From TrEMBL:
Gene3D superfamilies assigned: Vaccinia Virus protein VP39
23S rRNA (guanine(745)-N(1))-methyltransferase N-terminal domain residues: 21-54
Entries under InterPro entries matching the protein: Methyltransf_11, RlmA_N, rRNA_m1G-MeTrfase_A_prd, SAM-dependent_MTases_sf
Chain sites annotated for binding Zn(2+): 22, 25, 38, 42
Protein name according to UniProt: Uncharacterized protein
Alphabetic keyword roster: Metal-binding, S-adenosyl-L-methionine, Zinc
Keyword rRNA processing: no
Pfam families: Methyltransf_11, Zn_ribbon_RlmA
Length: 298
């Protein structure tokens, strides 16, 4: 009989509960019949989908408010589905290979946490296609993303969580993955072990350039992207161990073109005219241009 998602979740939690703590009061967890309970009796239930919803901090930025508006929720849900389809078709295969190389020395007992995991495909592929070892957890602030991630309950434990307040004890995590996602370096440094690694992936200037050109053909500012501020923040707050520039072209099959157009937030701010123009102008290759940063806490 096939195991249920909830059963997989309890298996994962049983393996890693000693690394976790309550995000409300920062006391240790124990497993209860319904999920996790801390020493101050804060209870976090495991859902039927095998996920847990930890509390999120109040969002103040305009970006966060826009992301979490009703309209954006609907768009985001669709975008994550399109993104998953393309990832499963190998969109990030060379990137996954490079990350897997960096994780080749990870042992079975090490804890890998993917912060801002989206819909979970990259962590799942690292586990299944690239055979990366270790206990794996992934989280995102998007409920829809985590719900999609629950399809991969056998490979990892998934939860709704906040990068500024992770439910982990200090110096408990061996590897933090931070792939195209926001960072909070103070919190990352808190949860990382002394010899733990952060693997952060950021776009370079030509990343998805065909999408930028398609949706913002008449807006030079939006056609360009610079990662200078993100890079400088990383090397300021973390100790840079290694960096690598990776660029390649992904072949876009015509049958996948609409998924490609909608797999990134790039299209969110485009005009309807620009969206229609992009829809009508198929391109055969999509440029992937990224920087992989490997760091330790200072």
């Amino acid at each position: 009989m096939l195991k249920k998602k909830k059963e997989y979740a309890f298996d994962h939690l049983g393996q890693s509960i000693n690394t976790m703590e309550c995000p409300k009061c920062h006391t240790s967890f124990e497993l209860s019949q319904s999920g996790l309970v801390c020493q101050n009796n804060h209870q976090f239930d495991v859902s039927k989908k095998g996920t847990v919803h930890f509390p999120l901090h109040h969002m103040d930025s305009d970006y966060d408010k826009e992301m979490l508006s009703h309209r954006r929720k609907m768009i985001q849900k669709a975008y994550m589905s399109h993104r998953r389809k393309m990832i499963q078709k190998g969109l990030y295969e060379p990137l996954e290979t490079e990350i897997a190389k960096l994780l080749s020395s990870v042992s079975h007992d090490d804890l890998i946490v993917d912060m801002g995991a989206g819909e979970g495909s990259i962590l799942e592929r690292l586990a299944t296609s690239h055979h990366v070892e270790g206990h794996k957890m992934g989280f995102d602030l998007s409920k829809d993303g985590v719900l999609l991630s629950s399809d991969f309950s056998e490979e990892a434990f998934w939860f709704i969580g906040d990068v500024t307040n992770m439910p982990f004890k200090s110096e408990s995590i061996d590897v933090l993955l931070n792939i195209f996602s926001p960072s909070h370096y103070e919190e990352m440094s808190r949860v990382l072990k002394k010899d733990g690694l952060v693997i952060k992936v950021i776009p370079e200037s030509y990343y998805l350039k065909q999408l930028r050109e398609a949706f913002y053909y008449d807006d030079e500012d939006k056609k360009e992207y610079s990662n200078v501020k993100v890079y400088q923040k990383f090397i300021k707050d973390m100790t840079l161990v290694e960096e690598k520039h990776l660029t390649y072209d992904f072949l876009v099959e015509e049958e996948d073109f609409q998924d490609v157009l909608k797999m990134s937030p790039i299209h969110w701010g485009a005009s309807e005219t620009a969206k229609q123009r992009a829809h009508d102008n198929y391109f055969q290759k999509l440029t992937m241009d990224v920087k992989i940063l490997v760091g330790k806490k200072q």
